[in-house]
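Question (not urgent): is this output format expected?
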Amino acid sequence: MSELYKVFSSDWKDCLDYSDESLLELYNYESYGGEKPKSNNGYSHGKKWLNLHVEMWKEDIESGLLFKKELYEDEKFPHWWLDSIFKE
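Got this back:
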């Protein structure tokens, strides 16, 4: 998932940290309730934007503004991941 987080935070890649330390920081926070990630943690930002996009996509698909096919045609989104969020 860390690679997907990078996709969703790539617009801010110049000011975010994608170090192994940042990845471990998010993992510990999510898995064990550790310290909240630093404000420049790229993985944390990516996770936030990923979740927001998925919710917006679902709303847009339901209202007919977006088709799943459009997302599957975009090469930056792996099909295994799209399958997991659109399983019915």
